[in-house]
Amino acid sequence: MSDASWSQPATVHEAEFGDYVELLKPRVMRLVVFTAFVGLVCAPVAVHPVIAFAAVLCIAVGAGASGALNMWWDSDIDAVMRRTMGRPIPSGRVARDEALAVGVVLAVFSVVMLALFANLVAAGLLAFTIFFYAVVYSMWLKRATPQNIVIGGAAGALPPMIGWAVATGGVAAESVAMFALIFLWTPPHFWALALFRNDDYARAGVPMLPVTDGPRVTRNHILGYSLVLAAVAVAPAFSGIGGPVYLAGALVLNAIFVAGAWRLWRRDEAAAKADRFRVERRFFGFSILYLTLHFALLLAEAALRALDLAPAGWPVLF
Fold this sequence. Notes:
α3 packs parallel to α6 (120-144). The protein has two domains: 4-8 and 12-171, Orthogonal Bundle (Tetracycline Repressor, domain 2); 172-318. It is flat, with a radius of gyration of 20 Å. The protein has helices at residues 17-23, 26-42, 49-73, 75-78, 96-117, 120-144, 148-157, 159-168, 173-196, 198-204, 209-212, 215-234, 244-266, 269-274, 278-306. The relative contact order is 0.11. The chain is mostly helical. Mean pLDDT is 94; it is low at 1-7.
């Protein structure tokens, strides 16, 4: 822990069911479950609906385990950040050792059950995801380097690969393309948040890019990553999981995203503070919709293929 003086709140109230649900970070879990489901549905191998449901449930439980372990480890910095001080542990609703127990039990349960319902490759990817988020990102990278979210973003990018592996038992170029989309989306998404939560991160001693290198460097990075992301995000249109519907939607979404990054890049800090980071907040909010809609478009393409409505002769490069 970064602050040895921090300890569990003096009064810990008896936890209710909702407190344990909050411990699992359900808002993050929703996006994880959705992208994993899309990866499963887009795979070229059909999966029995019962197996698919059980597998997605295991992935959701694994995501919740990661959230609980993250809250257990980060409870000291959560206690001093306005955005997180109301979480179950710093608010005294759940004890730290309870959070640790919940995280470990759910992690083991989710991996073992996914191995039984699906296959060892999918279970191994889920185990690696939990380990990477809880240990590599939370325990090491988050407090050690301003590149924390760049490298740590791999954990959030793995769910569609897990879903694909549930269906196919392996990894393919298409699942890597979905991974790359989330991986490159993560830095500009979180750096936009860090711009208007800079004081929070500085107070907690978390070396986010705006804290260590300043807002101007952060805005440069957001624009640079957004340009690379736009190219990578369009690429799946020419893969086995894409098509014209995805291409049209991706072109529009990425034009809006890059335009938003450009507006962020042109901002000076005086203007940002004057309007309470309105543009940064809007970009952060849109970034969530941006990723969700990309995967919704992939889902639409899968539906068209299932109904045999996909256009013949569409160029497939990978």
